[in-house]
Amino acid sequence: MSIRNSKQRGGLVDWSAPDQAQYMSALSQLCLSCGNTVLQRIRDEGERLPTATPKDIVSLEESDLKTLRTAAGGMEGWNGDVVGFLVSFYPYTGLRPSELRLANIEDLDVKSWTLYVAHPKGEGKYAKKRTVIILPPAREPTLVFLAKRRKRLEENGLAVFVESGPLVPSIHEGGVKHYSASAFRVMKHRLEDVTGLSFRLKDLRPTFTQMTLDKDPTLLSDVSKQLGHATSRTTELHYGRIRDRTAFRRLEEAWTEHAGSKPDIKSDLIEKKEYIPGYA
Fold it and tell me: Residue 1 to residues 22, 90, 123, 239, 266: CA-CA distances in angstroms?
């Protein structure tokens, strides 16, 4: 286990709340496996043990995505074509960086607008291969990229790979291969330099989640399935949550509809100024 969120103070480790919860969980499991139920009894008696609080979710706004796509469109050469595709495709599929990087052209179906994720995170261990939908904002950029992909391969005498091989091909020693994770990051860094926006490719996954939930919070289960999560709990904890403003709007709409008319914000007390300031 890592100690990424802890600090050293006077020779002692100052654990962060997430680390405390992680290690306490491991200790509890170890105790139970040895027949020691002391931690379980402590919980049963109502004592509080360290628990992890949800971390802030980092996602981009739609205006940021527009800035990135516009800037990528102005970048010359194949690297500009690739990074433009990345910032157009990731936010509207919810794919992990590696899931697109390791995808093959055969995995893409532009008739049904789906992509088969043949290499999910945890491949061969716990992950299941899945199919995701490519949402409308990414469809035209995908067709544009495929045309540029064909042209690049043909210009380099690699037309045989137009219908096979990596979806995002890296030409290497007369052949093609998948890009490395570091190569994707280098192209992303160049886009950051142009726009002044700092982001991680993996931030585009919660960006997809948050944008969708902002549009319709009832789609949480559908988003969870698209992301390949076993339950929507993981999605809520790490990728997207209903924003306060969305919750407030939906609550007001529900009660306005229930009442049959829009509630009058001002009360008789407010009109008469017979109220306690701050509690109107």
Answer: 9, 30, 21, 23, 56
